[in-house]
Amino acid sequence: MRISTAMFHQQSITSMLNAQSQLDETQQQLATGRRMLNPSDDPAASSQALSLRQTVATTEQYQNNADTATARLNLEESSLTGVGNVLQRVRELALKSNNADLTNSDRHAIAVEMRQNFDALVGLANTRDANGEYLFSGYNTQTQPFNVNANKVSYMGDQGSRFLQIGESDQVATGDSGWNVFMNIPTGNGNGLFVTAPGPNNSGSGAIDPGTVVDQNTWKPDSYTISFPTADTYEVRDSAGGLVPGASGAYSSGDAIAFRGIQTTITGDPIVGDSFTITSVGPNPTNSGTGAMNHSTVVDSTAWQQDIYTLSFSSANDYQIQDSAGKLVGNGTYQSGNPITFRGIRTSITGAPAIGDSFVIAPGTQQDVFSTINTLATTLENTSGPQTNSTVANAVSRAIQDLDQAHARTLDTRSAIGSRLNRVSNAKDSNEGFSIQLHSTLSTLEDLDYTTAVSTLNLQTLGLQAAQQAYVKVSGLSLFSHLG
Amino acid sequence: MPDLFNISSSALFATSRGLSTTSHNVANVNTPGYSRQVVDFATKPTLPEGGQYLGTGVNIAQVRRNYDEFLTNNVRDTTGRQSQTQSLYDLATQVDNLLADPTAGVSPAVDDFFKSSHGVADDPTSTAARQDMLSTATTLAKRFNIQSSHLNDLAQQVNSQITTQVDEVNHLASNIAKLNNDIAIATTQIAGRGQPNDLMDSRDEAVRQMAEKIGVNVLKQDDGTFNVFVGNGQTLVTGTQVRYLDVVKNPYDGNQNEIALGQSVNVGSNPNNQTSKGAASSPNTPIAIISGQITGGSLGGMLQFRREVLEPAQNGLGRVAAGLATEVNQQHQQGMDLNGVLGGNLFNVGTPQTFSDTNNTSDLQIQAEITNASALSTSDYQLTITGAGYRITKLSDGTTTTATLTNKINRDGTSSLVLDPPVDGVTLTLNSASGSTGNQGDSFLIRPNRMAAGQISVAIADPSRLAAASPIRAKTADGNIGSGQLSIDQVIDTNNPAFASTGTLTPPILIRFDDPPAAGGGLTYSVYNNTDPANPVLLQDNTNPINPVPLRGIPYNPAQDSAVFPNGSVDYGYRVTLSGTPQPGDAFTIDYNTGGKGDNRNMLALSNLQSTPLLAGGTTTFQGAYGQTVADVGTATRRAELNNGAEKTLLTQAQTAQQEVAGVNLDEEAANLLRYQEAYQASAQLVATADTLFKTILGVTGR
Fold this sequence. Notes:
- Chain A is of the alpha+beta class.
- In chain A, about 45% of the residues lie in helices and about 20% in strands.
- A six-stranded antiparallel beta sheet of chain B has the order 5-6-7-8-9-10.
- The longest helix of chain B has about 60 residues, at about 125-190.
- Chains A and B meet through helix 1, helix 2, strand 3 and strand 17 of A and helix 2, helix 3, strand 21, helix 9 and helix 11 of B.
């Protein structure tokens, strides 16, 4: 085969240039530590690396979010711990006040401390975080959620709670609205079926709790009276005066009294002649008309007062409303379905009630914790006279129930926070693990294997040197150099 | 009797030709295209004498070049192919390098943008977090702009290189025509005098150089001239006639250069009368654009690069920009900012480019608008008005669809003519001052994404305008007994009249469970207009205006969640769900989220766009689509690199084979030099011998 001289030189130079550019690439790989210098070096891997980098970045962000969530939840948790302590203290004060040996001034002193705790509670409920945002105002984080006006607290926030993304499809609430934590707390039995009340002329220290529903199907709406034939026995009669079967027995303070699907508890020492009523909410069972009462709601919590109200018809078109003491609180002309509003309560009656028909209205199955404390403190401040013990005992009994509901809500919220923190922590762990795995995959895709690269570099250096030496040697071999 | 002097002088003459040809070979050892020449010696005619034939010396039969037509053609063809892959590879590498850096590309900027949006979601009232989001949004837009401008620079580079290379092709075409002329004269007019070796080498080299620029086919004529064709058989050179190539503007997009056939000129013996601006300046000559047919050579490589790498990359990048901007804007519009105002656009992104063919006969213009970012493709489209209607060709794969005109009523009450169905997420609107709907034969080019990456910018400057909150909120009424909940699923359309008045919902909604429930046993609810909370008004479904249906007594099943809207014609542009176990009389309200500065629902939804597959028909994320573009460029570059490597090897093989025949080997020439030198010395000795013989005779006779 003939080799043209020009071709020989050109090919030698080309092969040296190739060796040089390969050497340069290996050198660049070593300098950057990257296996792929350009997407074209491995298009599939570089596209995969891009998406892995994105996942790494989002995972990092989830970790940041998780940290923020943890901080916010911890802050809420510590505020709620404070709230729990305050409620605990108020409960102790309530129990302390329920003592026949206390004087009026003792009770006033307790009321003063109770009001201090009230203020502390408002302060906790208005807690702000490091950014100056209110913790318990829902989405309205720049509006102070709880305003006090004449001992009544109104809520200015909303019901929202902020969520943060802590995983691919994992969002966690980082707060609870004040409405949920402090305002919307069920009171008494919280069922709206019946209300319990002490008799107006009780003189013993017996107190009745709001009762609970055990079996709604066996409940029979009526007005029941619990009375004490002796100090040690009780009996339950319906509105017709008949004994309720199986509902009488020996009285022992704190024992449950259960009948017709409900259960209540009387504590203290009632005396003979004392009585307690359990009144079903809604139409009186003896009504003869077709009137039906709709659900009642509190539309204006500042005007509302906890009580049992009776709406009765004096003619087919006129109604009047009285509170439990018989005081007239509202009246009007009846029209089926029209709203009836009084003392912050709204209800309506439909159908054709007969003259003399009556309805018991007892709304307000929710109460804010501030009102609970305020009501009790006000009772302690204002009560004096012969029936003090019984009034205080009943007020305390009701307040304890409400405080326990509020405390339970606090505990529920705290346990929810706990489980959220748990979720956040789990998410962080799994994100962490995921992140490590991602980095390792990314490293396999992108990173250079130094051992291979260095040995390649040596090989290539050697190759280039050999090519250069061979070129010098061979190109010197010319017949012309031997002529002449 | 043959004369010794004659014989020896013929030998001297022949060997000195041999020597000079060898020197010519040595001298041209590095001349491109040079073929080694050899002298063919032959015996002179013999003289019959005395029944014997006596030799009379040596003659030169011909000086020929060592040449193999097949091998030379092979070198030319492989040169054309290699030159194309080389130019494609060189240009593609530039795009490849542009997208290479994993820390400076678009993808990290997308990461940063969504990171900062998470930051706002974490802390919606923080001005610092909002400022950070605006600045990362600006960085992202700038990153798109920069990459897009780099790609545009490459497009400009291709444009100017097309001009330069076409000039060189024209110059070479003139040269070839001139050489055709010279060779024809040399071979025909001075017949029998051998071949003009060096002229033919020059012409071969000129054709080879042309093949470096543009793929050529060569047809050798009987008179020894070459006819040169490009593309699909477009004649460039016929004998001494040259049809010059011309650079013209794309009839749709004036910023894009195309190659066209230009004026035909007879070069004859004067290669300087080259003009290449014939056709473009003459309006009566229809311009024949042949860009699409050109393969081979660096021009072929450039056109292939523009078609297969650059434009897809520009469109791919543009689709990510347009898709991201459209989707983010849509989500942002569904939110409410710190001032309680509905969010606007977060990004500005221009409308898609549309071009009318300069040859259109009507004044119809097409306007395009992206209406569905997820349906966007990376292709360009051609709209042609045919007898059968509006034919739309997707240029990436050539599929066609036919659209019909429909009248669309706009939000402001005006109407416009649009093509139905929309083209892959792009709605085309007809626009004509004269009311024309176009003439048959009119055509338009639509580039949905080409400019998006270059045009994207941030639309807002005030950090408080970032809409982190949702504009509505649900409220459980005080005093509800049951555990029912009303949750807001999403805001769909803030252009709904419900959001027409800033800061309020028109109307606010009350949903109340009927007490007692409507006939039928289970729970039922009614939906009210709660503008006056003391006196809520039942809403009505006006689907049938004659017989409106009040939204009363709607059955509710506690076992399953129940969507409240839409209910017949009642649709307020958002979706809410009732769940849980409510009691009769329980109520829920929906209001404007006044004061909801700490709300992050919308920003959370916006942040989640990053990992939601939204593009390419909901199959890939923004960064996935970007990665696809990077991978496409990478693959194209890789393919070009591999092809180029293969073509280089083929070229080297072809060159080696050709050089094996035609190349000069100095050792060989040195040997020839020695050979001819010895022969020359021997011939000279013959002359001396003849002289001696002659003198001998003179001496004998002289005695």
